[in-house]
Amino acid sequence: RPEHKAKEYPEINRRITKEEFDEAVNFAEELGLDLVE
User: Fold this and answer.
1) How far apart are CA 15 and CA 27, in angstroms?
2) How high is the mean pLDDT of the chain?
3) Residue range(s) defining the domain that contains residue 28
4) pTM score of the predicted model
5) DSSP string computed for 1-37
6) What pLDDT score was predicted for residue 3?
7) How many domains does the chain have?
8) Contact 27, 37 (CB under 8 A)
9) Which of 2, 33, 34, 37 would bridge 6 by S-S if both were Cys, CB 3.0 to 4.6 A apart?
10) Contact call for residues 2 and 12 (beta carbons, < 8 A)
């Protein structure tokens, strides 16, 4: 969830979508990074 001064920026004052999360995970995997849970 948004923290600190995010409320001042409407474009980031929200939770990420599942699609955004999946895209970030896929990008990290393409770079050879591992997801740590």
Assistant:
1) 19
2) 90
3) 1-37
4) 0.65
5) ---TTGGG-TTTSSPPPHHHHHHHHHHHHHTT-----
6) 81
7) 1
8) no
9) 2
10) yes
